[in-house]
């Protein structure tokens, strides 16, 4: 797995970044806005080789891959480079591929653009940079032609972004046929698909830069005596937009990788990538402008330029909702597409042989050991815990895969993540095992010999479970505000207090307890961790039922006595002790339950009849909505992959984990709600099968925004770690 550029690509990025930052300054952008084009910028890009990036070497170009061009386009988007850059890159490629002379385009001597639609159907059409494009490469029925467009056929007119967009009368142009027939038109179709990817990269660069500008402003601007970046009303929407922008970028990366690998999902992914990028960039730029307040509306600040370009670049094709419909047709109606030869792609999502072997072993184990009775008990929560299966997994060495200290095999992060995904595909989420591993590691590293003998041995054998006693009724996500007291009594401790949301306490043997041992120091310094037997005198477990068919608990501790040997770590050192298991946090997403919701909706759409008598899934609007849910699943997977890769490769923690968790939980609820609407009223029932599953997913999704820290907490983490905004929490 790899999420990094090669050293050569990094050098290309830096080279273009330096040039564009020097050339696309605020005054230069405004000057270009007035005339729609910057000749000096265009010539400089040509000298750097921009227009020859995708031209085959035998035709005088650099012969680089699509991903290399996307690296350049991301920088062009970040700096708002004026002119039809993506179109010129691809026009030069197509001319070179078809045996024409690409040199005038590559050298910058002639400005070229690309017609995105067939001239036979649209003899007049809007062309990116059309007011200045002397050459246009287009499809005309069975021909691919190079058009010499006279100035009279491309009149400049005011437009949203002042970027030389023009509606061009292509019938007035002199046409040279470059090639004819299915192969030629397929090549033209392929460059249109590649245009979507290059534009997606540019829009991702634009969106991220707009957010960085807003974050910088919010880190300096004060209101009511505070930096406005400390207000969650400012920082949280920026964090949401950042996830949207990064998700679209990763989706475009995935599309290139899938084209290179010949994946059947590649064409779907291309359509979803450009749709997601157009949507994300537009939202990000507008939210960034909102951060500037009234100043953002003035032409003194550059942010308005980002708002206008975010809409202008993709809309030259037409309504972006058409890309969702296109993705739906490609996914559900068998529509095919001609895809480009993308060349080398350094980005890699392959999970590796160890992970594949782990998946195969999990599949075989579940097939051999899960009975229908067991499967009927499966649930995503603690309610789905099956003790006999849990013990069999321990005996098979499948319970604590990454933890040799717990008898595990020490498999790598990719294999561990793959194993978790395989279990979830079988419907067995098994949160009890995850908590048992966390508690087991803490005991192994900081526990007494007595704890290791009496507790850890049982956890390792799959004979005992532990739950987490962190949350309290008045503390919520702020675990460091714990008030449950641990008072020393000789060589023992007395524990008094209440813990809320102690999931699994009704079936667990122990609770990992965070207690207040020193009220006279800052709250995070006066905490101590204990393991408390839940069968101890003075412990009361009271059920709390949720509308998700999930039980949690409120647990009461009244004069509970435990020996000092059941303490973990130093007195008042509970925060350090908690860090012993943080390595298990690799930024999981909710992509798997999101997939369950989509598959259930797809099944229902195949059985529900539309008003025209056809299956509902044959309806274009339905296909589009299913495709949107698919995009969010893929983005969730990509965020999880990135977080896992960063942990495995020891990359800096820049908020990848919180982004994976927060974004996927929010999209899970958004999509579950929409899919429930789409398949109503059947989806309201709990009929066995897809209706019951979709119904459950809708209820489950609400909890995912709260588990493991609310979305609000994770938004703050993203804003601070990634955007550099000031701390929003006390």
UniProtKB/TrEMBL annotation:
Keywords: FAD, Flavoprotein. GO terms for molecular function: acyl-CoA dehydrogenase activity; flavin adenine dinucleotide binding. It comes from the Bacteria. InterPro entries: Acyl-CoA_Oxase/DH_mid-dom, Acyl-CoA_Oxase/DH_mid-dom_sf, AcylCo_DH-like_C, AcylCo_DH/oxidase_C, AcylCoA_DH/ox_N, AcylCoA_DH/ox_N_sf, AcylCoA_DH/oxidase_NM_dom_sf. The keyword Hydrolase does not apply. The keyword Metal-binding does not apply. Its cofactor is FAD. Residues 468-546 form the Acyl-CoA oxidase/dehydrogenase middle domain. Residues 6-83, 353-463 form the Acyl-CoA dehydrogenase/oxidase N-terminal domain. Residues 198-312, 576-723 form the Acyl-CoA dehydrogenase/oxidase C-terminal domain. It holds the Pfam family Acyl-CoA_dh_N. Belongs to the acyl-CoA dehydrogenase family. PANTHER family: ACYL-COA DEHYDROGENASE, ISOVALERYL-COA DEHYDROGENASE, MITOCHONDRIAL-RELATED. This is Acyl-CoA dehydrogenase. It comes from Novosphingobium aerophilum.
């Amino acid at each position: 797995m790899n999420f990094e550029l090669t050293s050569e690509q990094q050098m290309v990025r830096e080279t273009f970044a330096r040039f564009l930052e020097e050339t696309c300054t605020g005054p230069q952008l405004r000057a270009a806005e007035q005339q729609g084009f910057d000749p000096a910028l265009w010539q400089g890009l040509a000298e750097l080789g921009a227009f020859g990036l995708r031209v085959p070497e035998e035709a005088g170009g650099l012969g680089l891959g699509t991903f290399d061009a996307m690296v350049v386009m991301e920088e062009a988007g970040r700096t708002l480079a004026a002119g039809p850059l993506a179109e010129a890159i691809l026009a030069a490629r197509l001319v070179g591929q078809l045996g024409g002379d690409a040199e005038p385009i590559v050298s910058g001597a002639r400005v070229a653009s690309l017609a995105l639609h067939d001239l036979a159907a649209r003899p007049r059409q809007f062309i990116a940079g059309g007011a200045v494009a002397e050459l246009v490469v287009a499809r005309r029925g069975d021909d691919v032609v190079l058009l010499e467009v006279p100035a009279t056929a491309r009149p400049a007119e005011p437009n949203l972004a002042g970027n030389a967009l023009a509606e061009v009368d292509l019938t007035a142009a002199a046409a040279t046929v470059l090639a004819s027939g299915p192969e030629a038109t397929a090549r033209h179709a392929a460059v249109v698909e590649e245009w979507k990817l290059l534009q997606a990269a540019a829009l991702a660069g634009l969106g991220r830069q707009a957010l960085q500008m807003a974050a910088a402003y919010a880190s300096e601007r004060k209101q009511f005596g505070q930096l406005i970046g400390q207000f969650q009303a400012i920082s949280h929407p920026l964090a949401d937009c950042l996830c949207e922008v990064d998700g679209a970028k990763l989706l475009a990366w995935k599309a290139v990788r899938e084209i290179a690998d010949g994946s059947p999902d590649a064409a779907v992914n291309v359509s979803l990538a450009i749709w997601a990028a157009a949507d994300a960039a537009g939202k990000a730029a507008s939210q960034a402008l909102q951060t500037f307040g009234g100043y953002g509306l003035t032409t003194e600040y550059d942010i308005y330029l980002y708002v206008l370009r975010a809409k202008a670049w993709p809309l030259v094709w037409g309504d972006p909702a058409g890309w969702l419909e296109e993705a739906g047709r490609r996914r559900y109606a068998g529509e095919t597409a001609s895809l480009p030869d993308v060349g080398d792609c350094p980005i890699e999502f392959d999970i590796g042989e160890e992970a594949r072997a782990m998946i195969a072993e999990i599949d075989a184990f579940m097939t051999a050991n899960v009975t229908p009775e067991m499967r009927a008990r499966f649930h995503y929560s603690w309610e789905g815990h099956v003790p006999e299966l849990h013990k069999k997994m321990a005996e098979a060495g499948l319970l604590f895969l990454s933890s040799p200290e717990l008898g595990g095999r020490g498999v790598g992060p990719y294999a561990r993540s793959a194993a978790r995904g395989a279990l979830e595909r079988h419907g067995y989420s098994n949160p009890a095992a995850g908590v048992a591993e966390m508690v087991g590691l803490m005991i192994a590293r900081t526990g007494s010999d007595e704890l290791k003998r009496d507790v850890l041995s049982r956890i390792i054998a799959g004979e005992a479970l532990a739950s987490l006693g962190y949350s309290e009724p008045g503390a919520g996500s702020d675990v460091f505000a714990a008030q449950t007291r641990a008072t020393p009594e000789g060589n023992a401790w007395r524990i008094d207090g209440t813990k809320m949301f102690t999931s699994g306490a009704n079936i667990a043997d122990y609770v990992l307890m965070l207690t207040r041992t020193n009220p006279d120091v800052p709250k995070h310094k006066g905490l101590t961790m204990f393991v408390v037997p839940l069968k101890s005198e003075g412990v009361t477990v009271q059920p709390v039922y949720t509308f998700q068919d999930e039980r949690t608990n409120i647990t009461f501790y009244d004069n509970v006595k435990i020996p000092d040997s059941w303490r973990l770590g130093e007195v008042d050192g509970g925060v350090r002790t908690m860090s012993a298991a943080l390595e298990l946090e690799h930024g999981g997403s909710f992509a798997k339950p999101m997939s369950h919701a989509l598959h259930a909706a797809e099944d229902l759409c195949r059985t529900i009849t539309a008003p025209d008598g056809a299956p509902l899934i044959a309806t274009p609007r339905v296909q589009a909505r299913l495709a949107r849910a698919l995009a969010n699943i893929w983005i969730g997977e990509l965020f999880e992959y990135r977080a896992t890769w960063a942990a495995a490769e020891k990359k800096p923690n820049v908020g990848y984990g919180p982004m994976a968790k927060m974004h996927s939980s929010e999209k899970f609820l958004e999509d579950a709600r929409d899919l429930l609407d789409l398949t109503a009223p059947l989806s309201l029932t709990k009929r066995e099968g897809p209706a019951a599953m979709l119904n459950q997913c809708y209820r489950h999704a609400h909890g995912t925004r709260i588990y493991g820290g609310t979305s609000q907490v994770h938004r703050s983490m993203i804003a601070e770690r990634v955007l550099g905004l000031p701390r929003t929490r006390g």
